[in-house]
Design goal:
Layout lengths: L1 E7 L10 H9 L2 E5 L3 H4 L9 E5 L4 H13 L4 E5 L9 H10 L6 E6 L4 H9 E2 L5 E5 L7 H13 L3 E5 L9 H10 L7 E6 L7 E6 L12 E5 L5 E3 L2 E3 L8
Parallel strand pairs: 1-4, 1-5, 2-3, 2-4, 6-13, 7-8
Antiparallel strand pairs: 8-11, 9-10, 9-11, 12-13
Helix pairs in contact: 3-4, 6-7
Length: 248
Amino acid sequence: MNRLYIIGIGPGGTGAITGDAINALNDSELITAYTPYLDYVKDVVDLDEKSIFTSGMMKEIERCTHAVESAAKGITTSIISTGDAGLYGMAGPCYEIAEELGLIEKIEIIVVPGVSAVFAAAAELGAPLMHDTAIISLSDLLTPLELIKKRLKYAALGDFVIGIYNPRSKKRPDNLKMAIDIIAMHRNPKTPVGIVRNAGRAGTEIIITDLCSIDYESVDMLSLVIVGNTNTRIINGKIVTPRGYENK
C-alpha cells in the first residue's frame, strides 16, 4: 500500500520528537515541509538521503497536494507539522485533499502524533491543564471572528481552562485583549494566566500573571496563553488546576 505519514514533530526542540516520528521520517523517501521545519528534524534524520519538497507560509494546500500525489505514485512520503499534526496541523487537509483527488483509497495515511505546543507550554507552567480544557485559536484567517468570540464566551461560561493559540500578531494586535475581556466577564480578575513564548524550544520565556495584569505587548505569535478555571491556583510559583482527587 502506498504510504503517507503525517508527522507531528513537537514544538521544535529535538527532545520532544517522538520515536515514532523519527522512525516515520527515516522510513520516508520524500519529506514535505514548511521550509523552516527542516531545521527541527535535521539532527534525527539524514536529509541528504531524502528527496525534499518545501514551500513557504500559506502554502499548506500545495504541500498537502504534493504529499498526497507523491504517495499515490508509490513514493513513501511524509509531511511535517509542528506540534501535533491533528491540532491545527496537516492531518485534516491531507485527508480532505486525498478524498477530493480520488486518491483516498489508494494510499495508506498514517498520522503520527506529536507533542503540541499547548502541552509543552503547560509543562513549563506547572499543571494548568489538569481538568477539562478548551483550545481556541484567535487567528481569524480561517475562522470568522464572531465565531471565535462565541467559542470564547461558552468556554468561559463552561469554566474550561482555556489554551489560546495565535494570540496576538501585527495584523491582529487587539485580539488577545478582546479574548481576555470576554473571558473576564465570567472569571475572577485574579484568575492565573500563563504566557509561554517559544514553548519546547530554545529561548523559552515564561510569564505567570493574572487576568487583570496581562502585559499584552509581551505576547506575540510565538506565544501560547493558558487561562485557568475558577479553581486554578498558584503553588510554589507554578500554575496548578486541581483535578478534584482531594474531594473523593
